[in-house]
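Hello support,

Our group uses your service weekly, and this is the first time we've seen a run hang past the timeout. The protein is Cobalt ECF transporter T component CbiQ. I'm not sure whether the cause is the sequence or the server load. Input pasted verbatim:
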Amino acid sequence: MGAGHAHKLYREGHSPLHALPPQCKLAAVLCFVLVVVSTPREAVWAFGAYAAVLAAVAAVARIPAGFLLRRLLIEIPFVAFAVLMPFVADGERVAVLGMELSRPGLWGAWNILAKGTLGVAASVLLASTTELRALLLGLQRLRMPPLLVQIASFMIRYGDVITDEMRRMRIARQSRGFEARGVRQWGVLAKSAGALFIRSYERGERVHLAMISRGYAGTMPVIDDMTATRAQWLSAATLPLTALVVCLTGWISI
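Update from on-call engineer: The timeout came from a worker crash unrelated to the input. Re-ran successfully.
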């Protein structure tokens, strides 16, 4: 895990949020999401307060609103599911814009949309301010099983390798005049997928042998030991603690 590795969600910056150790940010986001999930769905104002808190965090991290909103599009499948709930759920029916909708379904759709959007937004902010390599080191600092951390590390790194191999194979097909226009071309694509699998397997074996020849014995060396001070932990705790106050107030108000 010594080499750097950038990803599309990361936005380089020098804000206080970028400077926080990854384990602090991981713990803060996890606690924030747990608090949001624990909030009663009837406390509608509380979710607005959570959104305002995340907007303040984004401002501190200097993350543009457009950058954040574009990456929230990943939750569109869940939005589609939530939109269908008022139509298919059972229970008391209410008239909304001339349509008979389920009241429990409306509450369920609101619950999924509000909590899901806030969770995705918090995750996007985490990814936007933390490199993948730092996230893996943060998981190590939080005592996540080392084997799981290594598997995640290899998946991230060699996912890009396989993607690049797929790109080269696509260019090779196009240079020979191939275009996938219908079912007749599926055989060529299937053969390409098989070749990709074999190449990936062989490359994995070569990488494993290279690691063993360099002394790999089941654990990866930690080059950068990212320790966190008490002040940094307290700074990161501001997000979940603020959310906890909102959550408790929401339970009291209903």
